[in-house]
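Notes from the 1:1 (GR / supervisor)

We went over the backlog. Supervisor wanted to see one worked example end to end before approving the batch request, so GR pasted a single chain during the call. The sequence is below; no edits were made to it. Supervisor asked that the structure be written out right there so they could see what the output format looks like.
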Amino acid sequence: MSLTIGMFTDTYAPEVNGVVTSIAGTVDALRRQGHRAIVVAPAHGGGPDDDPDVFRFQSTAFPFYPQFRMAFPLPAKLLAALPRMPFDVIHAHSLFFVGCLGAYLAQLRRIPLFFTYHTRWTEYTHYLPVHERISHAQAVWISREYSNRCDRVIAPTAGMAELLHSYGVRTPIEVIPTGVDIQSFSGANSIQPEPVSSAGPVFLSVGRLAKEKNLDLLLDAFEKIADRIAGARLIVVGSGPDETHLRRRASTIGSGQRVHFAGLVNRAALGAYYRAADFFLFTSTTETQGLVIVEALTHGLPVIAVDCPVVREIVPPEAGPLVPEDAELLASAAIGLAGKGSRDHAARRQAALKAAAPYSVDALTGRLVGLYETAGSFRAARVL
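Structure output shown during the call:
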């Protein structure tokens, strides 16, 4: 049975972040499987989308985080047309304006409403001025109230499902991770990014350059690694509100000349960075899944990460060490791993590939479609 799914999100391309990657990958997989996925998202001031099933609301940059867009209910003709679109299911990916609009339309049309909890909003309140900042308790309340108005909540990891239950979410929660489409990295196979060339091991970090990603710890740890491993390099891929601070900080440490900020790169080029690196460093403890970890594992990269429940769920000990949130311990783990022989590295590479195997985007999207197809029955049961 072919379905029409409305994907309602407050962040979408050309923005670059884990939520956008997750939605875009799922949309592509849904379409490969014969379904129609209609995306409703903020506009970014460019020309019309090439995709006729992407609908944009006018928006402006969020004052305290310019990379994020705030959408408005304009143009009016789009707002008026949405209730007539042939949605079988609405799947919200945020709880701001566009996500709330999706919830309203689902109620208006009496069709099932899904919600993927991509972001731990309690960890993002620092982007608001102090006098406007919402508290942790208020962020929990918003998350709970929105989730409890849905028919199903999707959590990317079991740890996130437990956290949502602790918030008081009563709506049934399904654990469906974000999948990785390895083909999206397949371009430029013969290209090795010039900055990755190194006489020593190459450590890679990928993601938004933002306070909640704990990247000061990354630089602290790499300074210790560089002191003990000649020729070691750190490649940082991504951009974000902390980029200027991190570049300035890297320039002040003794190993700063061995830290390269690659900026934003497209998927094909990103694949080249993953393939050219030796190890993946990850310091965030605020993830709902950590999609870049799965991407690294998919490329066979051993992962050296700060230990937390979400990361522990994805990275088995055989694929790389998880350590407490301490620069010396993180550096020691990385140095120990880099000092192992080729046989150990090959074994960890195979462990990484094995850990990534369950994260096929098509298989995980198939699980999501199974829920969509039974949504009518469980919605009826919920109403009764």
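Supervisor's comment: The chain has two domains: 4-179+360-383, 183-359.
Batch request approved.
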